Amino acid sequence: MTELTPRRAEIKRHTAETKIEASLLLDGDGTSEISTCLPFLDHMLAQTTRHGHLKLQLSAQGDLHIDAHHTVEDCGIVFGEALLQALGNKAGIARFGYAYAPLDESLARVVVDFSGRSSLTYQVTLAQTVVGGMEADLLREFFQALSNNAKLTLHVDLLRGINAHHQAESVFKAFGLALRMAVMRIGNELPSTKGVL
């Protein structure tokens, strides 16, 4: 039996606004070392890593003296680029993934398609405009940047919930579970009737 090549990526993004470096292993053990200077974002990314069975190292420094926007968006860019790089030509992957994840009273659904086309449908309204010291609408910016750079069709729906932390965490857990399904190796063929993704 031939050993499968590890699917990994190394990404560096240095701009006038942020300095971000990431290492991603798709077939990981759910462990992470994340430091974005935004503890709530660190916590959310750790949820995705754990439930996606990824291995993620990500460090970010940004212009937080202005606000968190550039840091959150650029973390989405880097995570998206890492997913795309690690997937390579996408031959043999399941391509589609979907998951529901509850956290107490909250329930989220995420559906992904590594279609080669960037598209985000985001139906999430958190119970608070600020959660974990971060503006809640920045979570959409994260997923938009990730979708754009991973060339990923992504549907994110928060179905119910009362507590904003629970709501956000259920979204990131569902995203991890959906990713795990979509990147699973199930064969050798490219999962497209077009012959390209």
TrEMBL record:
UniProt-recorded name of the protein: Imidazoleglycerol-phosphate dehydratase
Short name of any one Pfam family annotated for the protein: IGPD
Record HAMAP family: HisB (MF_00076)
Phylogenetic classification of the source organism: Bacteria, Pseudomonadati, Pseudomonadota, Gammaproteobacteria, Candidatus Tethybacterales
PROSITE patterns with a match to the protein in the record: IGP_DEHYDRATASE_1, IGP_DEHYDRATASE_2
SUPFAM superfamilies documented for this protein: Ribosomal protein S5 domain 2-like
UniProt GO molecular function: imidazoleglycerol-phosphate dehydratase activity
Cross-referenced InterPro entries: IGPD_sf, ImidazoleglycerolP_deHydtase, ImidazoleglycerP_deHydtase_CS, Ribosomal_Su5_D2-typ_SF
Transmembrane segments: none
Entry keywords, A to Z: Amino-acid biosynthesis, Cytoplasm, Histidine biosynthesis, Lyase
Gene: hisB
UniProt main location, coarse: cytoplasm
Entry superkingdom: Bacteria
Pathway the protein acts in: Amino-acid biosynthesis; L-histidine biosynthesis; L-histidine from 5-phospho-alpha-D-ribose 1-diphosphate: step 6/9
Annotated localization: Cytoplasm
EC number in record: 4.2.1.19
UniProt enzyme class: lyase
Keyword NAD assigned: no
Native source species: Candidatus Doriopsillibacter californiensis
Catalytic reactions of this protein: D-erythro-1-(imidazol-4-yl)glycerol 3-phosphate = 3-(imidazol-4-yl)-2-oxopropyl phosphate + H2O
UniProt record similarity statement: Belongs to the imidazoleglycerol-phosphate dehydratase family.
